[in-house]
Design a protein that fits this description.
Length: about 120
């Protein structure tokens, strides 16, 4: 009977070790340290400058509707959006979305590459 209680701490330690070993890849991925490629069809969240831009866009969009007006862009000191607002708002809706900005940037990139 005295052996059973002495095994319980060992089993608990083994269980904790197993949990740590299993969770390390997940923790590394959360921390952005994981070097394994994402599975096919997986779209990774934006990082770096793109993530900061999205955060600035959302902060500037004071109505929270995903539609950034020229006045909101001016108030948030977003000069690139202000300067090119009419080009980005190709459908003349009076606002731009993140998708509009992405499409405009891709178009500008394609024009630059085609012009070289």
């Amino acid at each position: 009977m005295s052996r059973i209680p002495s095994r319980i701490p060992l089993l608990m330690q083994a269980g904790l070790l197993a949990c740590v070993v299993v969770s390390v890849p997940a923790l590394a991925q959360i921390a952005g340290q994981d070097q394994t490629p994402p599975p096919a069809g997986f779209s990774a969240p934006p990082q770096g400058g793109a993530q900061r831009f999205i955060e600035r866009f959302r902060a500037a969009n004071t109505t929270g509707d995903g539609h950034l007006t020229l006045a909101q862009a001016e108030a948030a000191h977003m000069p690139m959006i202000v300067r090119h607002f009419d080009e980005i708002d190709a459908q003349h809706k009076g606002f731009v979305t993140l998708q509009d900005i992405r499409a405009w940037r891709q178009q500008m990139r394609a024009e630059r590459q085609g012009g070289n």
